[in-house]
Amino acid sequence: MVLHLAQAWKQFPVIVMTGARQVGKTTLARKFLPEAGYITLDVPAEAERARLSPAEFFQPHARPLILDEVQYAPSLFRQLKLLVDQDRRPGQYLVTGSQSFSLMAGVTESLAGRCAILTLPALSLPELPDTMNLASIDSFLWRGGHPELWQKPELDRSLWLGSYLTTYLERDVRNLLSVGSLRDFDRFLRVAALRAGQILSYADLARDVGISPHTAKSWLSVLEASQQVFLLEPYHRQRTKRLVKSPKLYFTDTGLLTYLMGFSAPSELPRHALWGAVWENLVVAEIRKSFLVRGQRPPLWFWRTFAGDEIDLLVEVAPERFITVECKAAAQADLTAVKANRVLKEEYGPDAVAQALVVCRTDRAYPLAAATEAVPLVGPGGLLGRQEFAG
User: Nearest-5° angle of CA 143, CA 216, CA 158?
Assistant: First the structure.
């Protein structure tokens, strides 16, 4: 991410860096610009001053300037536009925020064409040392990617995630949405976690929580805006009309996912019916991170027909040409894992599949057929070490 941040800093007057709470936005910003001025709008007095007098707010501060958690004072975006229009030199303002609704609304309205937008995800597997075997992968899956949990191994994982969840509910949810009952929203989070890796149904979510489908949709948009979940859209540039068009739901962090699911120990995971969904969430989230840290929009989709043919992940490498990825929580895989590729080729032509990968819990990659491999997530021949996915 630092390399791509540096490249953008040389080209744009403003960099907007988004990301969930506690993923390291402030740390990265201050490490990248150690001599820059710094203001956090997380401090209520600073946010109020920015809201009341945005022009005066900037006067005492030289550039470059870091504005942290700027979503608490969205009126600053108009003033930023005026300042940038007077001086278009690159490398002036580094803006961070953890709520993409208010943040991106201000960016779209005031800073279009004047800023680069980067998304900082939580830590990924390749960023941690000694993550070349299943034990370390499982530890990462269980603990999650929030940097503090790895900087301080003595921290109790459940206590930290529980505190994170409480802070998130009390601050971000109340700021983004008028939720009548935080208890209902907490239950909504846990119900959503049980549907990770599944086709999203607002009606089913609503029924299980006891809210309306409209409320379920609104609450899920809050989870998206604060980057706790993401939706994987189906690929439906179809030549027929027989494809599923609802998205799939994933959590950005598997530590929080397994906490919300109610698991009390990592040893419980492989024995549970949800283990395959958790493994799929890990694989898809790590691939997504590999694009985000390069400043790229993830070219990721899933594919499913009403007849039940499904491919967990399509990585589009050219129009209607893909690397297909299947996620299997077993130690070994065979060609039955990629049988849906035949249907995909019938739909989009014989060249639709550039490569087929089955990400399973193997120690090393091995071939299944021509241009088809079973691969580990990391390690020898691992998916995240390959050129297409190396962040």
Answer: 20
